[in-house]
Input
Amino acid sequence: MRDRLQDGDGAWTNLLDLYKSGTVATNLVYSYIPNRQMDCTFGRLSGIACMFLQCPRGEVILLPALPTQLPNGMVSGLCASGGFEVDNLTWTNGQFTGATILSKAGNVCNLRSKWPIIVMQGSNVVSAPMVLPGLYQFATTAGSNYTILPATI
Output
């Protein structure tokens, strides 16, 4: 739940506490208790994914709960509601450095970011106005990839 509160360090601490209890296997899938329940397994994996990507209220939120213990990294293959797939979501020194969003359905993408962004399709800049503080909106075409980069201010 700490990830849903956008508390990355709290989410990281909860994950470490699971390991310290000795009930979670190092592959994060199985537990060392007689009653292995899938809701616990999938909930744990979902909690990890939610540190990097969340999609409440029809928004795609990049790195909403990034723990300070993971200053650099990359994740791929995260699915977001609205028919989007996020690949190559990268960060360096705790700062967003880029992502690729595949539009599977051609819906409007409502992208929330703590950092100013620009949206590219190939070498073309896509109009992505900020419609609310931190919320960018842009039209997509099904099957197209959009590169999200930090804007230079």
Summary: The mean pLDDT is 83. The first helix runs from residue 8 to 20. The radius of gyration is 17 Å. The chain is about 15% helix and 35% strand.
